[in-house]
């Protein structure tokens, strides 16, 4: 065995031992609260990756789309025929297209009722609250209502919240938080949003 | 209209105008190079979200899994019956489980041949090179080969590269780069990886 191979083997053994230790220590099993926040691309996309994953095992999934309701959406089409998937979208679309605060609040509250129902349903394994952070920021949805629903949900249920500027209180009670930081975005240097990739 | 509603309308109009301007300026259409890097959760998951999205429009997708080949994988199961999806996984699994540099290099090179074929195929809309960054870092795959394949690919083809510590040269030629930064990860405070959520 060459020196390089020996060094590689030692490094990999050390890494494996470290990973094995961490796996052994991670023994608490329950539903989690995941937050995908930050200004970069990949928050909603990562939520849809998780949805696909959960559906792959036959789990029931509920999705509330708080903003992108009127957009064409390939991932929703791809999974639409799945009986285990339930999607509710705010019908006003992007809030800056409507510019009507009362209509937005009413539309938000309507889908929030579906969210609350899903978060009381023990048969639902995963609930995605896509772009919820803006609803709280704009004052369409009181933070206390969100916290109460999160705290009262079934123990085995995982919830994913996405959106920029995640509220401090939500981050504080999350199990896993990833900040998707934009290093570069094609859109900002002239690249048109692409079908099947960006939407 | 209340003051609050007026302020909201003005703010939303300003935001809409800003977004409209950016959309108007973004008129270049072609395949892109996306990089999901960083130490946080969501890189591979965002890639699978994009895969689901592209399949939703009936596009052909090729996936090379450079590390997680032997893992149970809900998203792959969910989409397995899709004739437009082609997945190749490195058969040695996690590299620190094998601790054999020569075997890892050979396994990497075998799937890399599939990657190169996909990146020459004009009918493939999206190619995902999952965890490729480690292959370059470990020296299993020369960076020059990766750059040559990226530069020579069809103009309409999008490539997603995932993995920590993305190589500087790859980042430099990417259109969109997101750094998934770990703010918190349940695994590090005792939460077991969860079926249908983490894998």
UniProtKB/TrEMBL annotation, chains A, B:
Major localization listed first in the record, in broad terms: cytoplasm
Primary enzyme class: transferase
Known catalytic reactions: 2 cob(II)yrinate a,c diamide + reduced [electron-transfer flavoprotein] + 2 ATP = 2 adenosylcob(III)yrinate a,c-diamide + 2 triphosphate + oxidized [electron-transfer flavoprotein] + 3 H(+); 2 cob(II)alamin + reduced [electron-transfer flavoprotein] + 2 ATP = 2 adenosylcob(III)alamin + 2 triphosphate + oxidized [electron-transfer flavoprotein] + 3 H(+)
CDD domains: CobA_ACA (cd00561)
Pathway linked to the protein: Cofactor biosynthesis; adenosylcobalamin biosynthesis; adenosylcobalamin from cob(II)yrinate a,c-diamide: step 2/7
Record has tRNA-binding as a keyword: no
Single annotated GO MF: corrinoid adenosyltransferase activity
Entries under Pfam families matching the protein: CobA_CobO_BtuR
InterPro entries: CblAdoTrfase_CobA, P-loop_NTPase
Keywords associated with the record: ATP-binding, Cobalamin biosynthesis, Cytoplasm, Nucleotide-binding, Porphyrin biosynthesis, Transferase
Enzyme Commission number: 2.5.1.17
Protein location: Cytoplasm
Top-level taxon in the UniProt lineage: Bacteria
Family note: Belongs to the Cob(I)alamin adenosyltransferase family.
Free-text function comment from the UniProt entry: Required for both de novo synthesis of the corrin ring for the assimilation of exogenous corrinoids. Participates in the adenosylation of a variety of incomplete and complete corrinoids.
Protein name per the record: Corrinoid adenosyltransferase
């Amino acid at each position: 065995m060459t020196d390089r191979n020996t060094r590689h083997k030692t490094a990999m053994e050390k890494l494996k031992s470290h990973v094995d230790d961490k796996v052994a220590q991670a023994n608490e099993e329950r539903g989690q609260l995941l937050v995908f926040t930050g200004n970069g691309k990949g928050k909603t996309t990562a939520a849809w990756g998780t949805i696909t994953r959960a559906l792959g095992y036959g789990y029931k999934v509920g999705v509330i789309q708080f903003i992108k309701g009127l957009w064409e959406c390939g991932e929703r089409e791809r999974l639409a025929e799945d009986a285990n998937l339930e999607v509710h979208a705010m019908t006003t679309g992007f809030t800056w297209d409507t510019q009507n605060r009362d209509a937005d609040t009413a539309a938000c509250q309507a889908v929030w009722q579906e969210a609350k129902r899903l978060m009381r349903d023990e048969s639902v394994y995963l609930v995605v609250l896509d772009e919820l952070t803006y609803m709280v920021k704009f004052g369409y949805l009181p933070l206390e209502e969100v916290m109460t629903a999160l705290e009262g949900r079934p123990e085995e249920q995982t919830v994913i919240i996405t959106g920029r500027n995640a509220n401090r209180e939500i981050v504080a009670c999350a199990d896993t938080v990833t900040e998707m930081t934009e290093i570069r975005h094609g859109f900002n240097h002239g690249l048109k949003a692409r079908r099947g990739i960006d939407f």
